[in-house]
Amino acid sequence: MYRPEIKVLDCTIRDGGLINNHNFDHKFVKDVYRAISASGVDYIELGYKNSKELFSSEEYGYWKFCEDDEIEKIKEGVESNAKVAVMVDVGRVNLDDVKPASESPVDMIRTATYVKDIDKAIFMANHFYEKGYETTLNIMAISRDRGLELTDALKQIEKESHVVAVYIVDSFGALYQETTEELVKRYKSILRNKEVGFHGHNNQQLGFGNTIEAIIHGANYLDATIYGIGRAAGNCPLELLVGFLKNPKFDIRPILDLISKEFIPLREKMEWGYIIPYAISGIMGEHPRAAMALRKSDKKENYREFYESLTNTGLD
Amino acid sequence: MYRPEIKVLDCTIRDGGLINNHNFDHKFVKDVYRAISASGVDYIELGYKNSKELFSSEEYGYWKFCEDDEIEKIKEGVESNAKVAVMVDVGRVNLDDVKPASESPVDMIRTATYVKDIDKAIFMANHFYEKGYETTLNIMAISRDRGLELTDALKQIEKESHVVAVYIVDSFGALYQETTEELVKRYKSILRNKEVGFHGHNNQQLGFGNTIEAIIHGANYLDATIYGIGRAAGNCPLELLVGFLKNPKFDIRPILDLISKEFIPLREKMEWGYIIPYAISGIMGEHPRAAMALRKSDKKENYREFYESLTNTGLD
């Protein structure tokens, strides 16, 4: 698949940071930045721009806050064409903390939102746009929110915002190809002046497959992470996506090197990937939080009981 | 997806046996047989019916030969509606060793073949059919053999054989959704009286996604293995397939139990799954043998060098 419009965004540090409270050290982040830059990937997302008034900097690492100074340290001395992105959540950022783009090492700010918060999210995205950033809106938990409200939200985004892309975020790893196809087509039918993005989760080993499906139907902004790192089941593996895309600007080798040297040992210390309780929550379309709690308990391998606990929650 | 015609075949013991020379002990095989039977899966494949004149029974375990007596020991005392399948390779079976179906615990014999051996394979499948077995033809290495020869082979199968299904076997884990779709449509356009089967490999984490793609376009015979076990990257995970199919005859819980109790510890001793050299050979459309050799060497994590060794084999 070679379509020059396609942009790949690596969110290794941002989504991987959800496993370790964003506590990656600067050397590791710089190694990732260097490999992403050498591989020709378009964007690298380093974390969240959360307010230090809401989250403790003792509890969370640098990449929960993504202060410009820290990002400058990562960029320093590395030749790169990769643009830097950060993510913000509705209600968790102090807008006054965000300098104009011209004074910041950040190129893109992505606002993560649920359908129900779309008004606030559009307001925020417009605020960042006015400060000179590229912006996106990333609609989470989409497998739950596929009704009319989503259609309305997309119409509102098309009319009121200046984002370059609107993402389908399969937070629960519950989408299959047919649901992915329907969503991409609906997005494209409404968003005439904006690109469609896709962020897959890998609960059912469909992160990559659904990303291909999204590409087939016209999505051009694609998220992935090195070796699929990310909370719970993780994400679409960047190495597979780069192997699939035929654009000659990409080079898979720096990513392979980094997996050899950093990610194989890291996986021994941090858990993500194809793990049955996450597969079960994907099959059920549930948030992974119950599965994450299970993995921290002494029942971590008790899959049948976990499955039954999710199926027997009668709603009288 | 609920289509009553869909049949699921578990090949855990057969394909998993490619990792350990078919040396699973009877207790393990019986545990798998019991779980598959309880889960409502339609078929269970236990191994190869290879000739003992060609392979040493000191080097290989029982499931390389699948003698009727050994299969009887597995079935004994277990309530089951699952039919038993065995696989044969062209040229590796002594046809005289195969008793009539009425005297055997085996229900189905699947003949694995390359396109080039289709004449021999049809002859063998017809031989088993005449002995009373259900039969299939499983066309291997299909990502390499997608040209006119495949079309001709399918026409010949339609005309000359009595198989219930003809499989697409993605031996190299190289298919994507679009190639899967094209193959299923081609098979269906030629095979008017036979079902289409799909056997995916998981090199690029597409075993399950491609199986869904095959289902969407009309494949009704689907292979999978528990926890994706199988040579190299392994196969479509049975638990995901059963979680996807909505036929109420299936029960995922016995499979989850078995993964907890047997497959999590087994994975510590045997290697399969998403491993970068297998992903690379899938991306390149190569047989996994070079990657398997790498994994047994002291360069097992040297991915860049391996990648370069596959790309730099100039054919002058």
Q: What can you tell me about this protein's structure?
A:
2 copies of one chain form a homodimer. With 316 residues, the first copy, chain A, is an alpha/beta fold. Chain A folds into 2 domains: 7-269, Aldolase class I (TIM Barrel, Alpha-Beta Barrel), CATH 3.20.20; 276-311, no CATH class. In chain A, 40% of the residues lie in helices and 14% in strands. The first copy, chain A, has 12 helices and 8 strands. In chain A, strands 1-2-3-4-5-6-7-8 form an 8-stranded parallel barrel, surrounded by 4 helices. In chain A, α4 links the parallel β4 (108-113) and β5. Chain A is globular and about 55 Å long. The mean pLDDT of chain A is 96.
Number of strands of chain A: 8
Task: Count up the domains of chain A.
Answer: 2
Largest sheet of chain A: 8 strands, parallel, barrel
Which architecture of the largest domain in chain A would the CATH scheme give at its second level? Alpha-Beta Barrel
What's the tally of helices of chain A? Answer: 12
Chain-averaged pLDDT of chain A: 96
What percent of the residues of chain A sit in helical stretches (DSSP H or I)?
25-40%
Summarize the model shown.
Chain A is of the alpha/beta class and 316 residues long. Chain A is built from 12 helices and 8 strands.
